[in-house]
Amino acid sequence: MRLSDEIAAYILRMMECADDGEAELRRNELAEELGCVPSQINYVLTSRFTPEQGYVIESRRGGGGYIRIRRVKLERGMSPLMHTVNAVGNSLNAATAQAIVQNLLYQQLISKSSARLMLAALSDQAYRDVPMEQRDLLRAALLKQMLTALIS
Amino acid sequence: MRLSDEIAAYILRMMECADDGEAELRRNELAEELGCVPSQINYVLTSRFTPEQGYVIESRRGGGGYIRIRRVKLERGMSPLMHTVNAVGNSLNAATAQAIVQNLLYQQLISKSSARLMLAALSDQAYRDVPMEQRDLLRAALLKQMLTALIS
DNA sequence: CCTCCGAAGGTAAATAATGGTCAAAGTCAG
DNA sequence: CTGACTTTGACCATTATTTACCTTCGGAGG
Question: How far is A35 from chain B (nearest CA, A)?
Fold first, then answer.
């Protein structure tokens, strides 16, 4: 079995055991326990615990730091929002983003103020400092991140 | 639990107990009671009781010195949000952004789901495609954009 | 009054404890 | 053999704690 799969399995197990379904871990500790370099933990997190797969990750550096993984995906019958998260690729232009949000609002899947917030965050207006080539990637990531946050 | 968190919790408790909602303490005394060096109290104050988080601190040195921590109350209505927009510079790190949003939520100026959305949009998680040097600029722009959207 | 001393609190730098990023090198299925 | 996925390691960023030294205030003595 691949190392990454073992790490993923380990984290999944941690989440099942916790009563709140969250896994909180210390990167270096876990890396040591599983015999891998610390950065491999990051690799596993970014490749297997993405918003598309229904996970939200928070972390803190520094003394007493941690990584927390939360699952928001409902096991079956994916929520409509989750469906959108999966439908969005890794790139998204402003017009499409706007259409998606407006559609979610129309379907009453999100509130009006949520829609306003999301439109503001997805419009090119705020991306002045982001290189053009990266804007659509950022937009896609932002939309997915925000929708995932709404579900949990 | 981190020492700093214990200190912060202790101070929060003091504020809750006081009828005026203020906490007044003597640095050395508190340090002794919590088993830390006095300057750690300052660290906690500057890292967790900042103006962004809605606190004001006064203190006096010398005999009979003290430290007083107060929560500032923002007026209701839209103006506090506008005030926040104006107060945010053109660069904003993740920790400060989080503190600002959490404070807005605490003061009931934004809803819980708005806070969640904003936190998701302001966390570094979604910025993987944005060069490090631009992240704080983007974050500031995003926060201002989103708050402005809430106002209008 | 004025000075000086002791009792506070303040600051900054060093150190420790974590997690994050990036790119080179390796692996493996097709 | 090639492209996607993995694994590693060097280097970076953030947060916490400790230590040494500095500043301010009030009052006792002169």
Answer: 26
